[in-house]
Design a protein that fits this description.
The chain is of the alpha/beta class and 321 residues long. The protein is built from twelve helices and twelve strands. The chain has two domains: 2-100 and 293-311, Rossmann fold; 102-284, Rossmann fold (3-Layer(aba) Sandwich), CATH 3.40.50. Helix 7 (160-172) links the parallel strand 6 and strand 7.
């Protein structure tokens, strides 16, 4: 059996092993494959039966051109890069990794928040530049320092990751408000479910942890920002298109929004004309919430188990049944 990994570098830049996949068949791993050149994608899949992808698109044309494909595994939770409906018509199971980064993504949301509150990296750099050594006082700070205890965090999307973020924030001493279509007992133990307008009006910090659906796309926009407290902090390490970026940039520059901590943007990699690059007090990281080694190992382990289940005749984590 031939197995091909189309874009393995972000999953495994060298600190993990593909060994368990190698045990299952003849394995070829490409670090990167073009996202736009379908002929390259087709060429690299060739006569492989099992295909792994992360962000490389597998379209109807690709599937029509690669009749040997019998199984597709996405090295991520989102699977919209695959034409899974056509794959279903062809009898090809498409699987994903549904849960792997809950702890890591929740932790990163809080990391963004703490950086906003203390600007640790900035002040460390200032010390290394000699500013403390030459300072007339025994301490200094260049940004307001913010204590979170007693403040309110509103979390839009209160599933596994939202609840993990809420748990950490609650441990810091924050009050948790949550907005979600589905209320759960585990969620109620962490925070209070409220409607969206209440969350917007009462939160000092708003964290986005919801999926990207038509009704959540652009959920942070000039109208919803207008309902927020002056000086609110916004965090997004979920999906970039949840935010209307020009509206957020305008709110940051006006001071309506004090700061934003973002690990995702609407187009990735980020484009040089993204208005958030020049916005005030905006921290942007390159979509790395998911990427601790522990999380990537879980992706690898689950992907291998997905293949084993397929070979055993009982595929799991199938998104196109």
């Amino acid at each position: 059996m031939k197995i091909v990994v189309l874009d393995g570098y972000t999953e495994n830049p060298g600190d993990l092993s593909w060994g368990e996949l190698e045990k299952l068949g003849e394995l070829t791993v490409y670090d990167r494959t073009s996202l736009t050149d379908e002929e390259e994608i087709i060429s690299r899949i060739g006569d492989a039966e099992v295909v792994f992808t992360n962000k490389t698109p597998i379209s109807r044309h690709v599937l029509e051109s690669c009749p040997s494909v019998k199984f597709i595994s996405v090295l991520a939770t989102g699977y919209n890069v695959v034409d899974y409906n056509y794959a279903r018509e062809k009898g090809i199971p498409v699987t994903n990794v549904p849960t792997y980064g809950t702890d890591a993504v929740g932790q990163f949301a809080i990391a963004l928040l703490l950086e906003i509150c203390h600007h640790v990296a900035h002040h460390s750099e200032a010390v290394h530049q000699g500013r403390w050594e030459s300072n007339p006082d025994w301490c200094f700070w260049d940004y307001p320092l913010i204590e979170l205890a007693g403040k309110t965090m509103g979390i839009i999307g209160f599933g596994r990751i939202g609840q993990k973020t809420g748990t950490i924030a609650k441990a810091i001493g924050m009050k948790i408000l949550a907005y979600d279509r589905h209320e759960t007992d585990t969620g109620k133990a962490i925070g209070e479910y409220v409607d969206l307008d209440t969350l917007l009006a009462e939160s000092d910090v708003i964290a986005l942890h919801c999926p990207l659906f038509p009704d959540t796309e652009g959920i942070i926009n000039k109208e919803t920002i207008a309902k927020m407290k002056d000086g609110v902090i916004i965090l997004n390490n979920s999906r970039g298109p949840l935010v209307v970026e020009q509206d957020l940039a305008d709110a940051l520059n006006s001071g309506k929004v004090y700061a934003a901590g973002l690990d995702v943007v609407s187009t990735e990699p980020i484009k040089g004309d993204n208005p958030l690059l020049k916005a005030k007090n905006c921290i942007i990281t390159p979509h790395i919430s998911w990427a601790p080694r522990e999380s990537r190992q879980r992706i690898m382990d689950c992907a291998v188990e997905n293949v084993k289940a397929y070979l055993a005749g009982s595929p799991v984590n199938v998104v196109n049944k």
